[in-house]
Amino acid sequence: MPAPDLLLAALYGSVTRDDALPTMLDLLAARFRCRSAAFLYVDRLLPLADVVRGHGLFDDDAQSRYRDGFARIDPLPGLMARLPVGRAAASDRLFSQAEILALPFIREFYHPLGLREALGGPVVNEEGRLGIVAVHRGPDREPFGDDEIRD
Question: What is the DSSP code string of 55-66?
Fold first, then answer.
């Protein structure tokens, strides 16, 4: 598990340097023992500024498939946008098991990618801009606990 100060330094670095975002996502995934991590930024006023970046299973190919066919049906960004900045939620707590299995995004993209649950929240949510950071666990680790959500 990376030291908290390394993760914090990488997080601050990702704001000021383009090359620091992959390091931050790598450290974040390791911190939560997850298969991948992602950063999503949407600017309704300046769509050219939109960013989708991932680490691990959410690699370049998965990011491309996400942008081309699944971003518009991903229910999580809309739910995350309702959270206060700095607050996190686990996807398995936002949906019932039946809802999870019925969502095309889950059935056709998320589960086939090898992922089972996301933990994330907004880091920016103002004036039409939304930035979300999330980690994604696979079936090889337990669901996110209360301590991890608070963390």
Answer: EETS-HHHHHHI
What is the C-alpha to C-alpha distance for residues 104 and 83, in angstroms, rounded to an integer?
Answer: 23
Q: What percent of the chain has pLDDT over 70?
A: 87
Residue type, 61: D
- pTM for this entry: 0.85
Which single residue is written with the structure tokens 């491309």? 64
Tell me the mean pLDDT in the region 130-143: 94
Report yes or no: 10 and 3 within 8 Å, Cβ to Cβ: no
Residue 93 to residue 99: CA distance in whole angstroms: 11
Instruction: Give all strands of the β-sheet with 51-56 in edge-to-edge order.
Output: 51-56, 36-43, 129-137, 117-126, 89-90
* Distance separating alpha carbons of residues 53 and 109, to the nearest angstrom: 16
* Residue where the block lists tokens 């930035």: 131
For residues 95, 97, 101, 107, the Cα torsion angle rounded to the nearest 10 degrees is 70
Q: Which residues of 81-97 are buried (b: 16+ CB within 10 A; e: fewer)?
A: eeeeeeebbbbbeebee
| β-bridge partners, 27 | none
19 in Cβ contact with 124 (< 8 Å): no
